[in-house]
User: Which sequence fits this backbone?
């Protein structure tokens, strides 16, 4: 029973690794090499299939020069496109 309760407590960790990689023009292989993991680990992390250790999370943040809360969160990050998209003047506003 304690094991079941513990599993229920596990919450998803959202991340912006793919966005930061794109901004800095780093491939998965390049980022993986810099933080000491294989490229498959970076891919799994970006897809939400792998949660990083604290050491890996901090190493990733050091590569990008940003604080950990800018990369990882318990809550989904807002969509940049949805937040900043300008209305199309050709679209009907109604």
Assistant:
């Amino acid at each position: 029973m304690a094991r079941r309760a513990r599993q229920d407590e596990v919450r998803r960790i959202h991340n912006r690794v793919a966005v930061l990689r794109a901004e800095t023009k780093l491939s998965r292989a390049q980022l993986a090499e810099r933080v000491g993991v294989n490229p498959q680990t970076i891919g799994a992390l970006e897809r939400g299939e792998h949660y990083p250790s604290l050491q890996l999370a901090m190493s990733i943040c050091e590569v990008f020069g940003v604080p950990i809360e800018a990369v990882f969160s318990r809550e989904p990050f807002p969509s940049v496109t949805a937040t900043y998209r300008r209305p199309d003047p050709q679209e009907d506003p109604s």
Summary: Residues 54-64 form the longest helix (11 residues). The mean pLDDT is 87.
